[in-house]
Amino acid sequence: MKLLVILLFSGLITGCGGNSSRSLPSKLLLVSFDGFRADYLQNYEFPHLQNFIKEGVLVEHVKNVFITKTFPNHYSIVTGLYEESHGIVANSMYDVITKKHFSDFDDKDPFWWNEAVPIWVTNQLQENRSSAAAMWPGTDVPIHNTTPSYFMNYSSSVSFEERLNNITMWLMNSNPPVTFATLYWEEPDASGHKYGPEDKENMYRVLKEVDDLIGELVHKLKVLGLWENLNVIITSDHGMTQCSKDKLINLDLCIDRSSYTLVDLTPVAAVLPKINTTEVYNKLKVCNPHMNVYLKEDIPARFHYQHNDRIQPIILVADEGWTIVLNKSLPKLGDHGYDNSLSSMHPFLAAHGPVFHKGYKHSTINSVDIYPMMCHILGLKPHPNNGTFGHTKCLLVDQWCINLPEAIGIVIGVLLVLTTLTCLIIIMQNRLSVPRPFSRLQLQEDDDDPLIE
Ligand SMILES: [Zn+2]
């Protein structure tokens, strides 16, 4: 009953005054801590991040896109598209028509990025707005001839403090004002690869450093007076899983290197055959029971990873924790890129600011849902995308949302109210009508009706 009243009341309020504070465009800062696996939040202590969540919202699992790698997932967050639709299908790519190559170190050609329009470009096409980026994959590339008005060329050696100083300066002192900004940090991904997520001691140290950076971020926003009016999303591109020297898939044991080109290696290998595709496929198919081998046309639909020329004719997908190698070495103790249905591959999302509820927890959304939510916050018309705005409505104060438990609660509440009212009416009717039959009976006793005789 209490729940029902609260919901009805909050619905009335949001229905009446939801958009009253929209005269000025909202400002949004999107932050990514690379490789922040969702369950780190449960398994380690994050005092600063937990304070941020206490005053905002938490989505415990974000289902990201396949392949669960850095460049593709960061681009999905800012476009709302699956990889086959935005064209950044891996960290290493090869285009057979133009013979162009793409890698983490050679990513500046707009050709690779122009299949989609990231939100910082759309934001900047609005009157009197600009975008800023203290790094994020693609922000230092002129996508559709447009970079953010303020951006930094990517360099892993630039400190978090310098990135934060730049982004807050741009948020405060720019004209036209910066309404959308990004901030990117390489940890805990780098340490997750180096030590593996099961190395508690090292991960504890690194995750404490990450939490301290979140503390710095919040402190700086408060000192500068940005905290109350700025909307901040903290999320990540993917999780991390433990690898092992006992879980290697050595392609050299199955097929001669001269018969194919390896465009991307592990845990999803992209294979471009130099000889007959079926022959290469048949050799790889029986190579290792811990590796699925797909011809491009047979890649499962749930991956949304097929309809793009940059996806190679054969892809190999290692089981969780297995590493595809060309020799016997184990390059990394932790890795990501695996099947996006694995919870170890999922990041989280936390958000704080005037558009977000306070102290609200939500179980899951898709990473492609973040884009339509950000467009809503900024008042932008989204490009066609694979996300669903409805999935994020419960996070936002100006939206009416009912999830399943609440809906069941409302139905039970209404039934209880109706049953109680019906019982009360019956009881009242009985009480009021009890004395009457006796009084009428008395009257009838004295009644001498001549018609009967
Ligand atoms: Zn990453």
TrEMBL record:
The keyword Lipid biosynthesis does not apply. Belongs to the nucleotide pyrophosphatase/phosphodiesterase family. The chain crosses the membrane at residues 407-427. Hydrolyzes extracellular Ap3A into AMP and ADP, and Ap4A into AMP and ATP. Ap3A and Ap4A are diadenosine polyphosphates thought to induce proliferation of vascular smooth muscle cells. Acts as a procoagulant, mediating platelet aggregation at the site of nascent thrombus via release of ADP from Ap3A and activation of ADP receptors. PROSITE patterns: PROKAR_LIPOPROTEIN. Its main location: membrane. Its EC number is 3.6.1.29. One of its GO terms (molecular function) is bis(5'-adenosyl)-triphosphatase activity. GO terms for cellular component: plasma membrane. It is a single-pass type I membrane protein. Its cofactor is Zn(2+). Residues 1-18 form the signal peptide. It is found in: Cell membrane. It catalyses: P(1),P(3)-bis(5'-adenosyl) triphosphate + H2O = AMP + ADP + 2 H(+). The gene is LOC111147834. One of its GO terms (biological process) is blood coagulation. Keywords: Blood coagulation, Cell membrane, Disulfide bond, Glycoprotein, Hemostasis, Hydrolase, Membrane, Metal-binding, Signal, Transmembrane, Transmembrane helix, Zinc. InterPro entries: Alkaline_phosphatase_core_sf, Phosphodiest/P_Trfase. This is Bis(5'-adenosyl)-triphosphatase ENPP4.
